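seq:
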Amino acid sequence: MIFMYKFVVNKLDTQYCQAPPTDRKLNKADIPLEEIEMREMLSAWYDTAYQPLIKANNDDNDTRAESARLKKLETTLLVVLKNKAYQAAFERILTTTTASISKDRLLRLLMESKG
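struct:
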């Protein structure tokens, strides 16, 4: 059987055919373009919205601004997750993500996108 990608049989699969490495950046020979883009979106979500909200001091203005940014990025993710290829990529990524509060939040977004 010939695969289009090294770690994914079909871009709509929600599981990897073999676990991708974590020590290098994946490319379009390894995974579908939708997954490369979803990884970039999740990195932006974490670095520019989720993490700053967690680190925000108790100043109401800081918390409000960071919370608004997080809500905006999550709304964008929900729009993107309407596409089945991006949704499958999101699910694959979550299968290799370590259990955490941020993963739980992303799982809730996934459920919301399906609901």
